TrEMBL record:
This is ATP-binding protein. InterPro entries: Anti-sigma-factor_SerPK, HATPase_C_sf, HATPase_dom. Residues 35-144 form the Histidine kinase/HSP90-like ATPase domain. Keywords: ATP-binding, Kinase, Nucleotide-binding, Serine/threonine-protein kinase, Transferase. The keyword ATP-binding applies. The lineage of its organism: Bacteria, Bacillati, Actinomycetota, Actinomycetes, Kitasatosporales. Pfam families: HATPase_c_2. The keyword Endoplasmic reticulum does not apply. GO terms for molecular function: ATP binding. Residues 1-31 are annotated as: Disordered. Signal peptide: none annotated.
Length: 158
């Protein structure tokens, strides 16, 4: 079931079964990045593993691109969720437009001309896994991706 209630406050530690942590207060890419980082720090990291910082940077880049696209091209951000999994962090970004981005299922090639735009989806394709674009019954769409995380190697060993 897709959670569409974006007015309810997000509660630390509250989990919506199957959908991750709703972040109703997220309205900007900066807030979404902070929320995604908090999921890594609070749920993915543990006493036995810590996410590689480069992977967290990649996560934050994808979050920025997806949320910015929802705001710029999707009629506004309708919801944002992040959930830790054994493989990384699953994101769900909802917007108000049913239009599927043309580049969403492309090869991930960077644009040939350097006009300062068109880099978002190629980066998402290169950094994310399990990309899906699902229509929402009430209108709009949900874009879901998995951002893989790897554990830092233990530098004390050896």
């Amino acid at each position: 079931m897709d959670r569409t209630d974006v007015a309810a406050p997000a509660h630390p530690g509250h989990r919506t079964p199957g959908n991750g942590h709703p972040a109703a207060s997220v309205r900007t890419a900066a807030e979404a990045r902070a929320h995604a980082r908090s999921v890594v720090l609070g749920e993915w990291n543990s006493a036995s593993r810590t996410a590689r910082e480069q992977d967290v940077v990649d996560l934050q880049l994808v979050v920025s691109e997806l949320v910015s696209n929802a705001v710029r091209h999707g009629g506004g951000l309708a919801g944002f969720e992040a959930a830790a999994t054994a493989q990384g962090v699953r994101l769900a970004v909802r917007d108000h437009s049913a239009a599927v981005p043309a580049a969403a299922f492309g090869p991930g090639d960077l644009p040939g001309d350097h006009r300062g735009s068109g880099y978002g989806w190629p980066l998402i394709i290169r950094l994310a896994r399990d990309i899906s674009v699902e229509p929402r019954p009430e209108g709009g769409k949900t874009i879901r991706v998995l951002i893989p995380l790897r554990a830092e190697e233990d530098r004390r060993a050896g």
